[in-house]
Amino acid sequence: MDLKISDLAAASTSIQAAIxxxxxxxxxxxxxxxxxxxxxxxxxxxxxEMQSLRAKITDLEDRSRRDNVCFFGIPEHKEGSNIxxxxxxxxxxxxxxxxxxPLEFQRAHRIGPLHxxxxxxxxxxxxxxxxxxxxxxxxxxxxxxxxx
Length: 148
Prior knowledge:
two-stranded antiparallel sheet; Transposase_22; alpha+beta; 148 residues; rod-shaped; single chain; 52% helix
């Protein structure tokens, strides 16, 4: 009978050790669950902040692009060696717009693959000097796709 009691005592000790181990595991899991719940509660605020930051980025990108003139379909090499001088003369003729003071560009360059009509981009120094003449064409601002 003493053998059975000692076996039961050993089994009881083993069970108590397992229960203590499970209690530690449950406590750890409870702490992790609390942390995850706190993060989940904070997500809507972070999403709102992220949307606000995206709107600011979009606004800043659009402001940096607002003086750009985009042109399309001008045949390759038609501008010769000086694309800024070409655009200064060609754009008023093409658009029917009266530019006073005359157009001045920070820089001008082609965009896209060679050997076909490429799109171009030229930031104006005095974008407010352009007034549209009815009829010939329209102009669109150089905005991000997300803005449209």
